[in-house]
Design goal:
The protein is an alpha+beta fold. Helix 1 runs parallel beside helix 5 and helix 2 packs across helix 8. The protein is about 30% helix and about 25% strand.
Amino acid sequence: MKDYDVIIIGAGVTGSAIARELSRYQLRIAVFDKNSDVGEGTSKANSGIVHAGFDAKPGSLKAKLNVQGSEMMPKLAEDLGIPFMRNGSMVVALSDEDVAHMNELKQRGEENGVKGLRILSREEALEMEPNLSDDTKGALFAPTGGIICPFRLTNAMAESACVNGVKFHLLTEVTNITREEDGYRIDAMQKDEFDEAKDHTVSYTATCIVNAAGVYADIFHNMMTDDKLTITPRKGEYCLLDVTAGKHVGRTIFRMPSAMGKGILVSPTIHGNLLVGPTATDLEDKEGNFTTKEGLDTVNRPGASAVKDLPMREVITSFAGLRPHGDKGDFVIGEIEGAPNFIDAAAIESPGLTASPAIGVMVADIIKEKLSPEENPDFVPTLEPFSYMKLLPVEKQQQLIAKDPAYGNIICRCASISEGEILETIRRPLGARTLDGVKRRTGANMGRCQGGFCYPKVMEILSRELGIPMDKITKKGRGSEILTGKIKQQEGQDHAE
């Protein structure tokens, strides 16, 4: 008997969406990821934009799954208890050539099934968004565009899968996959959370493998077939501006897209910040998520976006992410020919976050056809709502604080995150174990000071809750420890050594 019916490689937004959808059925499911938390690969540096679906080539998987995923997102966000906003998006024409392209985009979007698209005159566009470029000649407006928190979406889908019986093996790096009779064997390096000397190899068997490994998906694909896949890490660099700049635009503003992507966009975030980026630079390094002077200069260059007077002095951080750009020109989803029950969910670049719920359904349908599982009668589609204090009415805030005073103890002043919220996110299924884990789930350390003031307090809470010493607390897993020495009590005083 196999250890699992299905093993999913990758705990990003795609793998988590697939895991959640498969948990609707009576299957033994596991998710493997080499990182210390879910969503630490491509998904952690996503723009958080829910694309309307006008850009992808009609008939492509990108087009079909983008529109389906966008339509699914409001209900999914409601079920998972995470914030989502349909703020709309605009593609701005800055030249006569762009105007012609704008009409082509509208036609393409309508072929893809995008609802409500309309072309705005210069005057209409500027009335909606006064800070558009002075060169604006018109815009394509998509009312179904939206914004969501990519971290919370990934975490919530993974938590939902976990609650419904999916096993998550984090710090588990897949090193080899071997065909066996009626299935596959996966060999992996199981990393100890703290001590490299305790790392050890493990092996598991499964009937089905789902390859949702982001920029590494080509490696596992190519183990199984001679029809090779090449995934190029395409780096995008961003600048994040403080909430004081968050109302500079109310919608997601694109320039006309090029062969390298949608260009430098400007968008409010679900947290109230303003996001500017990304660049598009192809790399060989699958871990090359570092920022560069050249990249940030591109983001900061006047005229790079379709928005004027960007308050770039309000930048509070910059970051980079890697998009898994495949050489097939589309998402690669389906069973590999010659490798029964090995299913790719590969080359999931933009609009992958938007498409993720629909990808989950598509892959689950493939596996249902293969394994004919019964429905899970105990499947719970909703999560216990997280106590986002800022989103609660004052009366409910007061009730929560009266019940647990920790919700009245503000730890992160920049983002107004309470001790109660941090405790809650540590104690939930697949709870946070690192500073970045707390940050992505609650927003603590994400404000103007970027953790400069609240890091020590969050570390103390993690240490207390997890029962581990302060010098074992990390930013994002082993090797990113914050303290370099041990703290000990000596003669009534604290000494660091």
